[in-house]
Structure formats: structure tokens, C-alpha cells
From TrEMBL, chain A:
Domain (CheR-type methyltransferase) ranges: 17-291
Residues reported in the UniProt entry to bind S-adenosyl-L-methionine: 88, 90, 94, 132, 158, 213-214, 232-233
Organism, scientific name: Consotaella salsifontis
PROSITE patterns according to UniProt: CHER
SUPFAM superfamilies, sorted: Chemotaxis receptor methyltransferase CheR, N-terminal domain, S-adenosyl-L-methionine-dependent methyltransferases
Identification of the protein by name: Chemotaxis protein methyltransferase
Molecular function as annotated in GO: protein-glutamate O-methyltransferase activity
From TrEMBL, chain B:
Record-listed 4-aspartylphosphate modification sites: 73
Protein name in the entry: Two-component system, chemotaxis family, response regulator CheY
PANTHER family (UniProt xref): CHEMOTAXIS TWO-COMPONENT RESPONSE REGULATOR (PTHR44591:SF25), STRESS RESPONSE REGULATOR PROTEIN 1 (PTHR44591)
Transmembrane segments: none
InterPro entries recorded: Bact_response_regulator, CheY-like_superfamily, Sig_transdc_resp-reg_receiver
GO biological process: one example: phosphorelay signal transduction system
Lineage, opening ranks: Bacteria, Pseudomonadati, Pseudomonadota, Alphaproteobacteria, Hyphomicrobiales
Keywords: Phosphoprotein
Species annotation: Consotaella salsifontis
Automatic annotation (TrEMBL), chain C:
Protein name: HEAT repeat-containing protein
Short name of any one Pfam family annotated for the protein: HEAT_2
Highest rank taxon of the organism: Bacteria
InterPro entries attached to this UniProt entry: ARM-like, ARM-type_fold, PBS_lyase_HEAT
Amino acid sequence: MSALASEGQGAEGPPHPLSDEELAKFSEFFYRKTGIRLDERKRYYMERRIVERIRRTGCRSFFEYFTTLKLNGAAGELEALINEMTVNETYFWRENYQFECMTRSMLDEIARRKRPGEPIRIWSIPCSTGEEPYTIAIHILEYWARADSYDIEIFASDIDSNVLKRARDGTYDERSLSRLPPQLRARYFKLVSERRWQVINELRSSIAFGSVNLSDPLETARYRQIDLIFCRNLLIYFDDVSRRLAAENMFEAMSPGGFICLGHSESMSRITNLFRPRQFAEALVYQKPAPSRGA
Amino acid sequence: MTNALPTPSAAEAGARRFTWPGTRVLVVDDAITIRLFCRQILEKAGFEVIEAINGLEGLEQLLQGTIDLIVVDVNMQKMDGYEMLREVRRQPVLSAIPAVMMSTKSKPEDVDKAYAAGANYYLFKPIRPEPFLACVRLLTATVQ
Amino acid sequence: MGLVKAKIRKTKTGSGASDDMVGLSAALQAADPAERRSAARRLGSTTGCEAALLDRLAFEHEASVREMLVLSLMQLGTQDAVRGLAEHLRSEDASLRNAVVEALEAMPDAVAPNIELLLADHDPDVRIFACNLLVGLAHPDVPKWLSHVLENDSHVNVCAAAVDALTEIGRPDCVPALRACARRFPEEPFLSFAIDVAIARAAEQ
Ligand SMILES: C[S@@+](CC[C@H](N)C(=O)[O-])C[C@H]1O[C@@H](n2cnc3c(N)ncnc32)[C@H](O)[C@@H]1O
């Protein structure tokens, strides 16, 4: 897969480098489809990845590739492109400003709507190997002063049962832990083998892991009255219809006034008008309106 | 791009001094050619331009930065121009931002609908550079 | 600590309205929007209920229910769904019109046979919407349809919509039609600008 990268402009090299106009056309199409703005400054990186897709699909030119991509809706190709264009990994403290937004702004607002004894429900989907739900839990325990006055339930789901198994196990290496402040590693993890750390049992057992396909309403029907959803770095991989289905399913799962955090390059504005943008000091999030809206 | 815009008249050139440096205009339209056309006219006149492809993206831009004027189309997916303006007028932090609505619709009731939704000015499409710029200057001069 | 282990609920099946078409169609008229949404959702996987969804769409004012009605019609993707949706392009309600454009562009195979009719409609607004939906329609005839509009449509805003669609698509074989359009409307600064942009985008290296 990385052969081309190391080869550089070798003999097998690209059919031809892309022109400014081609790149502009491509960026716009990509933006329209995914809402991801490609960074001009990473032109070399982008170009290499596009050329890689042209080569792998057997197209002879950018024009041929772009035309099939656009006009024939080439099944699966857009997903492959997105995989090429995005960094597919997860780690503790990723896009931390959203967790800060949770403990400094969103949870207080959610708590104001709660009657005594009513739980606060948070859902991390997709949770992948678990870094995200554990980050949520640690943030709440460490930085939300009122954590002790509420019952807080954290659900964590993914479509892939293999990653869920690893999430439940909660053992991580240095790389995924690198952004976590050291004193928190000492508090919430134990060293289990050389350079491998496991989340303490008390924390592991407080999170409800389960396998869920976010585009399937029957599977999401088990999740209701959720106050805050982290749905980061998933919707960009979906086609238009599954993206809308996923948004509908989240809408159904949420309490009125509940919030959604998306990945930093994702936006609801291309997906659905079910939610309204809300700007907090720390982050832009999306909110499910109260029921009387638009009547 | 070979198509030069008409050179501004003396009166227009004089009006340029009313353009506060860094006055930011949000152009909301799903048509790329319209966004580019507005951008060219506005940048030439000293405005800063931000673009959005539909009403929701427009709202996101409004919430994230300081915008002095909204230029908005009617028909867009996810959220149309009327709904966006109603939302803008409802939100205290945004409600004072002036807005120009532009549309291919030219019946009197279409114009009424735009004003009812919260527009301060209405332009028929295809827009022409001079009246467009005049209206932008008028509305941005009022806020400053 | 404040974290408590939650129990994941069992899925309740068959709750609320019954699952047959008659029951679901009736539930589309329910007073509670949540009930209407749920009925609309379930009708999306039952062929033959386009009429029920389309009838409700004409009256539905709750945005979240409308989204679901349109999404279900999109998933059905039949000729009946397309024709019924296309009728709403004439609606006075902007958000309904635009929801319809969005749905139609996501169902290329079912929409294609209707495009020529829409592009020949007497109402320029319907023709503009038809051009708009061609931007996102994954169909090989899109350039041909747009060229035809550029060469023949008498309405400047319909042509502008076609130019815009071509700008997004960028096809060198449409350049002659773009030039022809420029000649037909020499007095319109916006159109000449847009056509220049479209031609620049279409230029192949
Ligand atoms: C890049 S990870 C995101 C992890 C984490 N949210 C983050 O942002 O760091 C994407 C995850 O989405 C999961 N996924 C893919 N399709 C899904 C679906 N339909 N429903 C739920 N999860 C899905 C994959 O299994 C993968 O673990």
C-alpha cells in the first residue's frame, strides 16, 4: 500500500501530476460529498493519494477517474478515497477541546434539565478500541465538579466486535496514552506488561459496551434518552443515505436539548437539518431542539 | 478569467472609503458560480468574504466568527434562506446582523416572504454588480 | 463515584402502532409527531405505500417528520415515489421543494426517465430545480441534458442553473454549449462571468 509513497516519482509513477484546475475540481467535489475541506498546504500529500487511487482503479488519467467517480457513482470508491485522505486512528485525549466543552459547558446545561434521581446518559459511538469512552469517563471524574451529585451512565458502541473486545479489555500501549497527563495514568491505569497499561477494573466495569450498527434503527432502538453523543470520525465514511439514517437514529435516541459532538472535520450541515449548531466557548456542537420547534 | 467587471464609477470609487477595513460578508448560496461572483465583486471593493453552501452551514459560520452582513439565497438544501434568516433573527447574538436576500423568484409575495423572514433588502437574480455593491455598502454603512 | 454502569435495554418490538400497512398509514395521521415519524420510518421498507407517504408529505409541517417521510421515499426509490416527489417541486413551501430536490438527486435510476419532462416544464422554477438536481445526480446523461438547456432554454436563470451545474461537473465536451449560451445572453454580467468560470474548469490539460 505504501509502495508508491516510498517510490516517490519512480518509473511506475503517476499517470501525470494534477493541474491546479483538476485539484480544484477534485477538492470541491470531495468537499460537497463529505464536508471535508482538503488543506491546500498539504497538496503534495493529497495529490499522492489521488494518484494512488487512479492507479489502483486502473484508470488512465485523472479525467477518466474523476468522471467515473462523479457520473457513475462508482460504488465503494468514495469510501476508499476517504480512507486514503483521513488518518484512521484513535487515542486518549483526542480532540480534547470537546471533552473540555463537556465538563465546562454541556454537562451543566444538561444537569439543569434533570429532575432529582434522573441519570445523565452519554453515548460514545463509534468507540473503536475504547480510548474515547475512557477519556470521557476520566474527564468527568477529574474535571466535572458535580459528578458526585448525579448518576452518569456511559454507553460505548461499535459495529466491530473485535475492537469492542479490546475496548472491554482496556489495555493500551504508549502511543495511545501519550497525551494523557502522567498523574492520570498513575490514577486510572495499572502496568500489566512491559509498556502495556490496563484501565483499572472499577472504571472498566462502569462503561456499558455493546455492538451497534448506527445506521440500523432496530439496533439503535435500545438506546434512548441520551443527553450527549460523541459520534466522531464515522459519518465521513458513510454514503448520503446511511449518513441520514445515522442522523435520524441519533435524533431518536436523544433527549430534547441533547448534544452531539462530531469529529473536527465533520459537519451536520451537509447531512440533515434535524439539529441546530450551538457555539460554546470551547467548541461548536449540535443540539436536538425542544419539541415545539417550527410549529 | 477574462471577464473583467465594469470599472467602478467615480461615485462608487468615492463610496469606497465607507468600506471599513475587514468588514466581513457571509455569502450563502449553493451555487458555486454565485459565490465566486459575489466574492469577486466584494473583494474588489475591499470586503472580506466568507462562504457557506446552505443555511445550516451559514449559521455555523455566523456562530463561529464575526460577520457584518449576510447575503443569502432562497433555495438551498438542508436549510433554505427563509429558515436561516428566521433562525438568525431568533438568536440574540445574531439578530442584529443585516441581511440581503437574493432569489430568482420575483413575485411580490416572494419579496414579502423575504422581509417577513428577516431580510433587510431583496435582489432579483441574476444579480448585477452595481446594485449589489450599492446595497452591500448601504447595509454595512448603517451598522458602523 | 458518579459513574454508574448502565443496563442496555432490550429492544421493544411491535410497540405502538401495528406493523401492517393500514395500521401504519393510519399512524401517519397521529397527533404525536414521534408516532408519525416512527410510522414514516417503517413505511420506508414496505413497497406499495408511496401514496400514503406522499399524501402525508403534502400536509406535514413538523420538520423532523418531513425528513423521515422524504428519507423513506428515497429508500423506496420507485417511479411512483419519484413522480409524486417531483409534483412537490411546485410547492410554495421552500423547505419542502428543497427536500424534494435533495431526495431526487439521490435516486438517479428512477429519476433519469423523468428528467426531460422536468426540463421542458412550463414553469421556470421547476426547470431550475431540475438543473439543480443534476449537479448531484450520478448519471452519464447529465452533460447531454445540461447542454440541451444551455442551447435552448429561453430563461436566463434556468441557463444560469445549468452553467452552475456544469461548473461543478467540469466537462470539456460541453464547452461549445457554454459558448452558445454566452452568445444568447450577451448583456448579463453574471452569466458571462459564470460561463468563463465553467469553461476554465472544463479545460483539460
Ligand atoms: C476512526 S474510528 C473512530 C474512533 C473514535 N470515535 C475516534 O474518533 O477516535 C471508526 C470506527 O467506526 C466503526 N464503524 C464503522 N461503521 C460503523 C457503523 N455502521 N456503526 C457503528 N460503528 C461503525 C469502525 O468499526 C471503527 O472502529
